[in-house]
Design a protein that fits this description.
Two copies of one chain form a homodimer. Chain A is an alpha+beta fold. Chain A is about 45% helix and about 20% strand. Chain A is built from seven helices and five strands, in the order H-E-E-H-H-E-H-E-H-H-E-H. In chain A, strand 1 and strand 2 form a beta hairpin. In chain A, helix 3 runs parallel beside helix 4. At the A-B interface, helix 1, helix 2, helix 3, strand 3 and helix 4 of A face helix 1, helix 2, helix 3, strand 3 and helix 4 of B.
């Protein structure tokens, strides 16, 4: 499939998902022009704020391929990803991203991606989300244990 | 439980998770001083790049409470969250975050959070991740359908 065909698949998923009661978002993970997995936004009916199209497509692709590393794959998303999904795309090591709508389009219909992007750039004390460091010295114990573990699975 | 006790729980989860073969990260979602859910990092053994402690604790709390909205809850995480998890915290509408280790500590033991934070701040064309807009006009169809849907579940 061409990149346009793969994007049309992501778009058609996003359109159908609105009719199915979900959010207007769809995504496809593909490798060498073949669909590996798809995902749509099911936040409200699954009661899962992480159930975004890209996260779902990535989780499904990893399940199918038996790996947490999607190097060699590309993601087609009907909308520029929110920070959560963009983070997931980096952790999944996808080679490339294609997007249809932009985050400005998403903001225009009431999705808060742009707000979260702005918050990301602030230091914790300046964010709307109240946050506080707590027991830093004790928390370092796990990192020390990790660094000393000879058989750790790095990723 | 006090905030220190809840953070110690997150830290002890992170320490035990290293011994169990996972990454050095643990998290607790709590409401009114009571634990609602816990999560640890299981990326490598679950083959899921989104299986971070905070995402898992949020998903579990939402499952238990039957909602995608964790207003009134707080998250205690053994390490300052990566962009994916911070995004999830915003989408879940948690009231407050407490963290133990910082993202600088995470970078020092080889986790790429700081790199992903830097990428977030760049426009798509300047990121390491190759990305490209595709079929923007066609993609807008789902957003138009969403905006016109009288019974949409906004969130």
């Amino acid at each position: 499939m061409t990149k346009e065909e793969l994007m049309r698949k992501a778009i058609s998923l996003s359109v159908r998902n609105v009719a199915d009661g979900g959010g207007p978002f769809g995504a496809v993970v593909a490798r060498d022009g073949e669909i590996v997995s798809t995902g749509v936004n099911r936040v409200t009916d699954e009661h899962d704020p992480t159930s975004h199209a890209e996260v779902n497509a990535i989780r499904e692709a990893c399940r199918k391929l038996g790996t947490f590393d999607l190097s060699g794959c590309e993601i087609y998303t009907s909308c520029e990803p929110c920070p959560m999904c963009l983070g997931a795309i980096y952790w999944a090591r996808l080679d490339r991203m294609y997007y249809g709508n932009t985050k400005a389009d998403a903001a225009a219909i009431g999705f808060d991606d742009a707000f979260i992007y702005r918050e990301m750039e602030l230091s914790p004390e300046n964010r709307r989300l109240k946050s506080e460091e707590c027991l830093h010295e004790e928390a370092l114990a796990a990192f020390a244990a990790w660094s000393l573990k000879p058989d750790r699975s790095e990723y």
